[in-house]
């Protein structure tokens, strides 16, 4: 079976055999393309699966004289960019919540219920910060509360700027991951 025959069979007859043929022919190319943008092997494999599900869902729109390879790479690119955009927006949202719900930022104009939720969230964040490993907690508090630079923190603690950065990145990752659970709980 040729690629053109497989595309015709897939688009006109919903052929599973043609689909399998195209999958075997293109999965490694799609995977390698995804790996250019995605560092995680598992995430790249998941993208390959999404691409081929999308191929099956849009099979009736396939045209014999158009490049299937080009079509698959456009789908792959769009999926990767959409996921990156979604992840960026989610990370930005979580970070905004961390910044917005400190006790210093809770103003008196909030409704009573909002103020209560904000205080609960603030206490939860404080508890999360206290649960961080000691060095991470120290770096995080110096950075966020004392507004110190990585260099200043490093000098005070006797560690490199890069080590400070790693501590703060890990602390933020932990806080962001756990804060979403609390927000889900509040929403119920």
Automatic annotation (TrEMBL):
<dbReference type="Pfam" id="PF04542">
    <property type="entry name" value="Sigma70_r2"/>
</dbReference>
<keyword id="KW-0731">Sigma factor</keyword>
<dbReference type="InterPro" id="IPR013324">
    <property type="entry name" value="RNA_pol_sigma_r3/r4-like"/>
</dbReference>
<keyword id="KW-0805">Transcription regulation</keyword>
<dbReference type="GO" id="GO:0016987">
    <property type="term" value="F:sigma factor activity"/>
</dbReference>
<dbReference type="InterPro" id="IPR007627">
    <property type="entry name" value="RNA_pol_sigma70_r2"/>
</dbReference>
<dbReference type="InterPro" id="IPR036388">
    <property type="entry name" value="WH-like_DNA-bd_sf"/>
</dbReference>
<comment type="similarity">
    <text>Belongs to the sigma-70 factor family. ECF subfamily.</text>
</comment>
<protein>
    <submittedName>
        <fullName>RNA polymerase sigma-70 factor</fullName>
    </submittedName>
</protein>
<dbReference type="InterPro" id="IPR000792">
    <property type="entry name" value="Tscrpt_reg_LuxR_C"/>
</dbReference>
<dbReference type="InterPro" id="IPR014284">
    <property type="entry name" value="RNA_pol_sigma-70_dom"/>
</dbReference>
<dbReference type="InterPro" id="IPR014327">
    <property type="entry name" value="RNA_pol_sigma70_bacteroid"/>
</dbReference>
<dbReference type="Pfam" id="PF08281">
    <property type="entry name" value="Sigma70_r4_2"/>
</dbReference>
<dbReference type="InterPro" id="IPR013325">
    <property type="entry name" value="RNA_pol_sigma_r2"/>
</dbReference>
<feature type="domain" description="HTH luxR-type">
    <location>
        <begin position="129"/>
        <end position="187"/>
    </location>
</feature>
<keyword id="KW-0804">Transcription</keyword>
<dbReference type="GO" id="GO:0006352">
    <property type="term" value="P:DNA-templated transcription initiation"/>
</dbReference>
<dbReference type="InterPro" id="IPR013249">
    <property type="entry name" value="RNA_pol_sigma70_r4_t2"/>
</dbReference>
<dbReference type="GO" id="GO:0003677">
    <property type="term" value="F:DNA binding"/>
</dbReference>
<dbReference type="InterPro" id="IPR039425">
    <property type="entry name" value="RNA_pol_sigma-70-like"/>
</dbReference>
């Amino acid at each position: 079976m040729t690629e053109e025959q497989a595309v015709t069979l897939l688009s006109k007859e919903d052929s599973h055999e043609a689909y399998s043929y195209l999958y075997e022919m293109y999965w490694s190319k799609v995977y390698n393309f995804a790996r250019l943008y995605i560092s995680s092997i598992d995430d790249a494999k998941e993208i390959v699966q999404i691409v081929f599900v999308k191929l099956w869902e849009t099979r009736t729109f396939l045209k014999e004289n158009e490049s299937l390879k080009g079509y698959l790479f456009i789908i792959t690119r769009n999926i990767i960019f959409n996921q990156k955009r979604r992840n960026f927006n989610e990370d930005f949202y979580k970070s905004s919540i961390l910044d917005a719900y400190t006790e210093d930022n809770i103003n008196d104009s909030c409704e009573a219920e909002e103020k209560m939720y904000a205080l609960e969230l603030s206490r939860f964040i404080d508890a999360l910060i206290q649960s961080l490993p000691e060095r991470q907690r120290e770096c995080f508090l110096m950075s966020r509360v004392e507004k110190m630079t990585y260099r200043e923190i490093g000098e005070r603690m006797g560690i490199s700027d890069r080590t400070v950065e790693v501590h703060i990145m890990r602390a933020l990752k932990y806080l962001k991951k756990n804060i979403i659970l609390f927000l889900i709980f509040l929403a119920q």
